[in-house]
From TrEMBL:
Cofactor(s) it depends on: Mg(2+)
Binding site for Mg(2+): 188, 216, 241
GO BP field: peptide metabolic process
Matches recorded under NCBIfam families: A_G_epim_Thtga
Cofactor note: Binds 1 Mg(2+) ion per subunit.
Pfam families: MR_MLE_C, MR_MLE_N
SMART domains named in the record: MR_MLE
Species of the source: Dictyoglomus thermophilum
Name of this protein: Dipeptide epimerase
Length: 343
């Protein structure tokens, strides 16, 4: 038995190596909340919350005051009963990134106690996973250059951000495809296109012989009819991201037949909801990818162990820790570009 003794919060500030630009805005830094969970037996588990006001409405200032009620809720509880604890933490549904950090910290402390990595606690589905790396929004020349650099680094799945200028996006994709032959492309509009623009984009790529694995969140998060319209008229698979923040959103888009892929991000939903979404998607024959926000190595560690444990994700967009400055590597995984190996 390993009972929870104390849970502490710590705010960590990270700068991006270079500005990270997507259609809705540019990120220069990120404030993440580290969760430290200590048990009476001396085991310590770590988690990280990366709140996104744009996606989930969370701000780190709203998470910090929850330290005391979280301790009241979980103190004395046994980490071995983690599914029961997940249900308690689910009451904090308005704070999905904090849910993730707490739920993972419980698993991490349990992992330390029983000497079994978290990915094996979750099933040991894969021994390694392949990540992509992302090209920020920029000029055609900037995006082409960044894509070439990523390809030369050894990444074979390249994610390209689009959405500010439709026709520049098309030209950038054509040039990137010429310069990085053999790569697989994930294109992400981050809600920036209208349904008609999304279809112009996909039709132009198809006409020019440019193959993409999927187009992610082409339209507004709340425009599910538009998302469905694009999916039924696109030559390429369509993924939902910002439209799917929890298990109920996932059920809705599955019923509507609005997507081919669901992008699970632990920061949007917590580990408990992510487990439910996986089962819903598998039942409905919807494919899965896993993404990230602005996690450090400590935070991306959570998604690496989750995805390797379940082994069900076709694409892994887990590159945030490669894009920020860190004084110390905190992950329980090894990097062998383009692979992550959980440990």
């Amino acid at each position: 038995m390993s009972k929870i003794k104390k849970i502490s919060f710590k705010v960590n500030f990270y700068e991006y190596i270079k500005p990270f630009r997507i259609a809705p805005g540019t990120s220069l830094s990120t404030n993440n909340l580290e969760v430290i969970l200590e048990t009476e037996e001396g085991y310590v588990g770590f988690g990280e919350a990366t709140p996104s006001f744009r996606v989930t409405g969370e701000r780190i200032e709203a998470l910090i005051p929850l330290e005391s009620p979280i301790n009241e809720l979980l103190k004395g509880k046994d980490t071995k009963n983690f599914r029961r604890l997940f249900e308690l933490i689910d009451k904090f549904f308005a704070f999905p990134s904090l849910k993730t950090a707490l739920q993972y910290a419980i698993l991490d402390a349990l992992s330390e106690e029983i000497k079994l990595p978290v990915y094996q606690i979750l099933g040991g589905g894969k021994e390694e996973i392949e990540t992509d790396k992302t090209v920020s929004v920029g000029s055609i020349e900037e995006r082409v250059k960044e894509a070439e650099e990523i390809f030369k680094e050894g990444f074979r799945v390249i994610k390209i951000k689009v959405g500010l200028n439709l026709y520049e996006d098309i030209e950038a994709m054509e040039e990137i495809a010429k310069r990085t032959k053999g790569a697989t492309y994930i294109v992400d509009a981050n809600t920036a296109y209208t349904p008609k623009q999304a279809l112009i984009f996909t039709k132009e790529l198809y006409k020019r012989g440019i193959d993409i694995a999927l187009l992610e969140q082409p339209v507004s998060a709340h425009d599910l009819e538009g998302l469905k319209y694009v999916r039924f008229n696109s030559a390429f698979p369509i993924a939902g991201d910002e439209s799917i923040k929890n298990r109920y959103d996932a059920l809705r888009v599955i019923k509507m037949e609005a997507v081919d892929y669901i992008n699970i991000k632990l920061m949007k939903c917590g580990i408990s909801d992510a487990l439910s979404i996986v089962e819903l998607a598998n039942t409905a024959n919807i494919k899965l990818m896993i993404g990230c926000m602005g996690e450090s190595s400590l935070g991306i560690n959570q998604s690496i162990h989750f995805s390797a444990g379940l082994g069900v994700f076709e694409f892994h967009d887990l590159d945030s820790a490669l894009m920020i400055k860190e004084d110390k590597f905190r992950g329980k995984y090894k990097i062998k570009i383009p692979y992550y190996i959980p440990s």
